[in-house]
Amino acid sequence: MRDLADKCWSLTEADIEALEIGSGILGTGGGGNPYIGKLRAREALRSGLELKILPIEALEDEAKVVPMGGIGAPLVSFERIKEGREGLRCLRALEERMGFTADAVGCEEIGGQNSMEPLVTAAMAGLPVVDGDGMGRAFPEMQMTTYAIYGHRSTPSVMCDPHGNAVIFDHAISEKWHETMARACVIAQGGASVLASAPMSGAFFKRHAIPHSYTQAIGLGRAVIEARRAHEDPIAAICAREKGRRMFSGKITDLKRHFRGGFNVGVAAIEGLEDCRGSQGEITIQNEFLIFRRDGEMQVCVPDLVVVLDLDSGLPITTEVLRYGQRVAVLALPCHELLRTPQALEVIGPGAFGFPDLVYRPMSEAA
Amino acid sequence: MRDLADKCWSLTEADIEALEIGSGILGTGGGGNPYIGKLRAREALRSGLELKILPIEALEDEAKVVPMGGIGAPLVSFERIKEGREGLRCLRALEERMGFTADAVGCEEIGGQNSMEPLVTAAMAGLPVVDGDGMGRAFPEMQMTTYAIYGHRSTPSVMCDPHGNAVIFDHAISEKWHETMARACVIAQGGASVLASAPMSGAFFKRHAIPHSYTQAIGLGRAVIEARRAHEDPIAAICAREKGRRMFSGKITDLKRHFRGGFNVGVAAIEGLEDCRGSQGEITIQNEFLIFRRDGEMQVCVPDLVVVLDLDSGLPITTEVLRYGQRVAVLALPCHELLRTPQALEVIGPGAFGFPDLVYRPMSEAA
């Protein structure tokens, strides 16, 4: 399957800059700080590695794709830089444990730094990353991928930390148990490790991954960069491209944010500005921005994307960077249809985040 | 190495009864409730399995010995019965991961239920348990074995829970890291799992295990049973046999005990009775009884054994069974010399338990 390389395209530094912004937007505040991810990807590029993307259509049915991503709390990965080879150690240990050779790396989560993690590891291993991912955004837990939702068993998996520790989750009786054990373990490891899951076939990936996420994220980032360059409104550019809606403009007036069970959790209160003056916004956070309420009424919730942007620059703000006094715009972007099935909503709908009374109404229907 | 079987002796139900008491005494309150352990071992025996002990002298240098034990909090294992085949799943997964066949099972910890765990698993696998262990008592953490202290690397190890989850700690950069990750994970698994460590050679076991622990524990239990039968003082029998000292008699008047970080921790206050009237005893607990103070002054501390017995029956009381109003005797038994070296005291002396100012004075010297 080594001729996959012919079908790949390679990322440039400009692509990485665009991916930082695009994955930041799709990250809905989470997925790890994309700036840190960019630095790592750019460093890899400058050291001579090739960051290759394989079009999902070119993926062969029999190819073995290893899904990868960082695991932990964004807050930690923002403050503690990775050792750098965690992902490669995961990949090699997984290949050894299961007796196979990976053909490509899959992205677990296109949002935030987790868009970059697979690129760097794949580059070190001389492999491409397939143009797709398991979330089309960011979510806080591992069972929340379309891979897991549509039947992939992610164990055996390997988790490596910056110290050199390696743990194999050899068998988990469910995807949620995998998450529970790995979460406990990553906290013990310091809160920022990398995890590679059991390989899936190219056929499975093509059927159940959110397709074209890298193309989408890079295109989205480029649109923002171009709008800014042309002194146009980047927020309007994002909405036009993603069929999104601008929900609110305001100033952060209260921010409860803490670190619980390995997650960043909290609530941000936003006092309306401009045409929202007199209104009060509120965002519920668990690593990502989950729910946006206006004057107590729910406006957007998972799995649709709640995006927080700097009001002036149009650049995305992650949950750990959010602070009192920031002037922000809140956007809603519709999630991919693979996240909207009844099967998916059981795992990533509001009920799965502890809001059983909230009923998800797809943005597309409400519009 | 299958002819090891010739050199083994098999445990009877009477041996198991004696082991319950002896391992309870050596457990210094921890190691898991020995009564629960007894029930499992007896059940195994009655189902036709043979619980075999291999004399340590008969162990061949090249034999592969897999150390095993339950991991978790005694409180949990007392309330939630094991599924039963956790240990066997660990052993099989470890053999598969590392590509070897075990010749014998080693005991991590002779104290409490952990004396029984290896017996049941070994019986299921048709293997003997070597007459020795890694603690000569019970300790709360995994790096506190003579195996680890004297250089055995316990990873790769496998940990299995009652649900069917299996985790391989493939590489830990230190024994303490192994403990830290496994502890976090066992809490996520519900607090009572089984762990099998990387095999060691027979030569290593013979040199660094506490020898004859099963013989010792069973003999100790028998001495208590016989003294009780003859209406003699079982406490005196224990002291005579183990070169122990009776330190205190009294009534539990205050008991602070809670569950923190996967451990039972606490303090028990004892008001003196009999010849101790007017004195106040205090025991510090972390899964085991660690330190005994009389009127504020330290009398015994780890690694020497602080044993709490029912004042009338002479039977050992575990930390989770301890309760207000119990009339108890506190005994001190000297630990094995392998636990008293400077190398060992770094890992299992009072400093390792958060008491850097306490200086360990071996009982034998003080006597």
TrEMBL record, chains A, B:
Residues 15-170 form the S-Me-THD N-terminal domain. This is Hydantoinase. Residues 174-363 form the S-Me-THD-like C-terminal domain. It comes from the Bacteria.
